[in-house]
Amino acid sequence: MERIININQKLGEVVSIFPGSSEIFNELKIDYCCGGHDTLGAALKEKGLNSDVIVEKLNEEYDKFIKSNAEYRDWRKEKPTILMRHIEQTHHDFTKKELREIDALLFKVLKVHFSHHAEELLKVHRLFGALKTELEEHLVKEEENLFPLIRAYENTKDEKYKEAIEKFIKETEDEHDAAGDILKEMEEITRDFKAPEGACTTFKLVYDKLHNLEKDLFIHIYLENSVLFNMI
């Protein structure tokens, strides 16, 4: 079997080559979104994982993926405008919807289960509030500032747009890091988004939705940090 994936590739590059690697990275707690510029080898070493075993697994799963003839879109080969439309329609819309729904559900769970899980729920509620604010402002800045600038640059190749874009990219990556830090803290408090023993359906649902939001944000951030911003 030809080894397509190796330790010298960046995490973002590995996900671009093999989308299924994102699930493996999620299981291993490897940050391929905000940390997408790190090499696979460095990330595995930091986690104390056996690089030979993990690289072998990634290549085996990649081989299965290729043999399955699964449909796959390599976003690195698309125009920035096409990728940005996908990000907005897929990830921005999902994030906005989930933030609204989680907000209502989490308040309900906080009120109903306060007497038994006050410490955990208060922390999660505060962290979610910070995450919601961070993401709502972030999405607006992308839709109203960054993405229009990238579209203007793609159409004109005017350097004045490129300078403004580079400034926004730095701010955007910082905001990605801030959201990632909040999610990691929330993940720790909730035991990887697992509701306490005996929790009701709504309690489990809100933690499941937080987990799904996290996974979608990882893909969203990867597409921007490791694909879109490299097109500029």
UniProtKB/TrEMBL annotation:
- The organism's superkingdom is given as Bacteria
**What are the alphabetically sorted keywords of the record?**
Cytoplasm, Iron, Metal-binding
UniProt xrefs under NCBIfam families: FeS_repair_RIC
| Signal peptide per UniProt | none
Q: What is the lineage of its organism?
A: Bacteria, Bacillati, Bacillota, Clostridia, Eubacteriales
Q: Does the keyword Signal apply?
A: no
The UniProt record lists the Hemerythrin-like domain at 89-232
Which protein, by its recorded name, is this?
Regulator of cell morphogenesis and NO signaling
Where found?
Cytoplasm
Q: Which InterPro entries match?
A: Hemerythrin-like, RIC_family, ScdA-like_N_sf
Q: State one Pfam family annotation.
A: Hemerythrin
Q: Which PANTHER family match?
A: IRON-SULFUR CLUSTER REPAIR PROTEIN YTFE
